[in-house]
Amino acid sequence: MTLARRPHGTQPAPSTRLTSSAQAPAALPPPAGRGPLQRMLAQFNNVLIYVLLGAAAITALLGHMVDSGVIAGVVVINALIGFVQEGKAERALDAIRAMLPFQAQVLREGRREELDARQLVPGDIVFLASGDRVPADLRLLDVHNLRIEEAALTGESVPADKQVAPVDSAAALGDRACMAYSGTLVACGQGTGLVVATGAATEIGRISAMLDAVEPLATPLLRQLALFSRRLTLVTLLFAGFAFAFGTLVHDYSAAEMFLAAVGLAVALIPEGLPAIMTIALAIGVERMARRNAIIRRLHAVETLGSVTVICTDKTGTLTRNEMTVRRVLAAQADFVVSGVGYAPRGGFALDGAEASPAQHPVLAGIARAALLCNDAALARAGDAWCLAGDPTEGALVSFALKAGLSEHAERAALPRVDAIPFESEHRFMATLHHDHAGGHDIFLKGAPEAVIALCQWQLDGGGQRPLDAAAWQRRMEGAAAGGLRLLAVAHRRVPALAELRMDTVTAGQFTLLGVLGLEDPPRDEAVAAVARCRAAGIRIKMITGDHLATARAIGEQVGLALPLSACTGAELAGLDDAGFAAAAAANDVFARASPEDKLRLVTALQERGEVIAMTGDGVNDAPALKQADVGVAMGAKGTEAAKESAEMVLADDNFATITAAIEEGRGVYDNIRKAIVFILPTNGGEAGMLLVAIMLGLTMPITPVQILWINMVTAVTLALALAFEATELGVMARPPRDPAAPVLTGFLVWRIALVTTLMVAGGMGMFLWELRQGASLEAARCAAVNAIVIGEIVYLFNVRRLSAPALGRGALAGSRSAFAAVAVLVVLQLLFTYLPAMQQLFGTAPPGAGAWLRIAGFGIVLFAVVELEKAWLRRAGG
Ligand code: ATP
């Protein structure tokens, strides 16, 4: 591979790399995270925990050492569980971050290769293109319109122009125009540089700036929960104060007795386990998404994904396979059909149904030469397969040129490239300048037909030049594009002596159109199914593509975007005022020949209409739209580093179906979090309700603070945790997206919590009073009440696994392994609590009799049946 252009005065690139054993490792040292001690202490940094610790201290002062010890013990155990689980969640997220490798294009053994940037060593030659992150500190050898955004290093947000001429050795970092620094982003242009420092030895390594700061485990939902905790603490203190006053003033309880009851109330109302469970549910969601190729870069995306209403997607590579093959060659007088599969240069040409050999049709070789020389891709044979290095569109052109009988090496040797203007989606063409060995200078141009034809005055016709018949070409191209073919025109111009290629030389026109190529890029099979699933899930899909209107429309129809499908072009949008634009953004399904600016305007317009947008992108210019979208989705394989850094999620396989999978998982995570809340709160409500009833009626306390803590802790670490692991319900993609403004606790959920709380209070209190009336000891009656609540929780877990669908019945128990395992563990714990003498002493319990167990079981059945009846009633009412 030759370098695009070597400036005067630079030395040829060294062909061997330095392999000094003293060189710095190429990876930056990882940013310092929180230490284990800090993480452990953070577990206690929570108002609810302060309340519990305060309660433990005062209980101790009052001489109730056992109670105080149990409260403190539970706080510590809870912190330990939180610590271990959060540590696991953080490790899982770190592992997922590491799944995003950072690739660099280098020249090794004379060949261009892509490798992990951590393998770079000083002396390597690195290629830079727009959107790349600079992989090491580089001395630039060659630049073409290269501008680099160095904000990470210098704080300067305007991209710096780069050059190859040396600068003063004392120049400040921001003025060293002949250098490119690790971690900065290529805003535009191309360049080549020699690695001078890697890893910690780079400028960014020296100031040890974190490129990818570790994101705290905080999401809107977790913040909402933190607010809820603070409010709950206030309510708890108010309730406890009220109970204390009421008990001492109205019922003549002693202050010490009432204080214990108030502590019990505080302990009852606090859902200690909830924050850890929510974090775990999120982390599990992130892991599940990663398993389905969706890599989450920012945790809040997990929640947002569940409420996406519109997906704005690219076409090429996302909905289509991005495996291009040239199928048609339109020359002025002939329309060739090309055979062959993939990139393998095996296949031939047909004209009007008959085989056509390239030797008889020299026009084919002319078109192929332009397509081969104005090209940066390389095809290599690996056994039977052909591998592509570079852009798939260009790979297809190389394969076509080989089919047309050209030799890559001979053509490049005969017409060496002197300069190039790379393809950018703004101007939609690529141009190269070549010098032959007889003093001739040629420019080859290839690109979107509109862009290329606008620069052509003639067409190649029967071996000679004729004036261009643009209308005739337009008609023929419409026909090819309507079949879904991607079109690319190639043109040529001979110029007088020219040393470098400037944009104005190309845009001056005067080209001769050689022909138009039709490339096939079939839709991905899984995209068709995924589009149908999104539509069933109430999500609209809009395809925004740089491709031709007819091509985009045909592909849109093939994947089933909408029926009927409405399409428009970027040029049509440009003429609209804001109101017209907003209407067009909402009405159309396909936006063809759209620019990155159109993408940004579309996202903003749709968001103003209240839509929640997931937007895909790959180029450096897509970054603003990705940032603006609610969920920016970057392509892992073909996307630039700039796009990935602006995105919330990266698709490892660039596949549309992966977005659908992530949305499904996102809806599932949100469901599980809601289920955990709806599960945990009635336990707290039930316990607090029992105490309040007892205080109001002047009765003995039905459960003690330590018993309450026991219930909260064991049910949280078994049953509630099982909910975080629940598989996503089958029907999640059959319902419309969630309203992002709606609170976590909808009216329906508050009703459900109130209903179950009432049942719990009735069951627990009823059991306690019944046992006492039957002559059981206070300890046995309390033990029966505790077991009633726990059994209530066990059956309620199965109610909650399906928020509105029946808990039993076809497929309902599928995936309930973690639920059953949690129940098994809990049963063992409850047996220990009830029958182990040490536990009896610690918790003040005595085993209930066989009759009590029967009544407890009966309560469980009633609770289960009532919730299922409520569900059936709500389903019938359409709730
Ligand atoms: P999408 O935005 O869905 O990925 P796209 O890949 O077709 O669509 P662009 O990459 O902007 O969008 O390409 C637009 C047009 O530019 C193509 O239809 C093709 O005609 C032309 N084109 C694409 N790649 C090249 C290239 N490497 N050199 C020259 N022209 C190209």
TrEMBL record:
Residue ranges of every copy of the Cation-transporting P-type ATPase N-terminal domain listed in the record: 6-64
InterPro entries cross-referenced by the UniProt entry: ATPase_P-typ_cation-transptr_C, ATPase_P-typ_cation-transptr_N, ATPase_P-typ_cyto_dom_N, ATPase_P-typ_P_site, ATPase_P-typ_TM_dom_sf, ATPase_P-typ_transduc_dom_A_sf, ATPase_P-type_domA, Cation_transp_ATPase_P-type
Topology class, membrane: Multi-pass membrane protein
Biased composition (Polar residues): 12-21
Subcellular location, record wording: Membrane
Ranges where the record places region Disordered: 1-30
Any Pfam family the entry gives: E1-E2_ATPase
Principal localisation: membrane
Keyword terms: ATP-binding, Membrane, Nucleotide-binding, Translocase, Transmembrane, Transmembrane helix
Membrane-traversing stretches: 44-62, 68-84, 232-253, 259-284, 676-701, 707-728, 749-770, 776-798, 819-838, 850-867
Family in the record: Belongs to the cation transport ATPase (P-type) (TC 3.A.3) family. Type IIA subfamily.
Protein name, per record: HAD-IC family P-type ATPase
Lineage, uppermost ranks: Bacteria, Pseudomonadati, Pseudomonadota, Betaproteobacteria, Burkholderiales
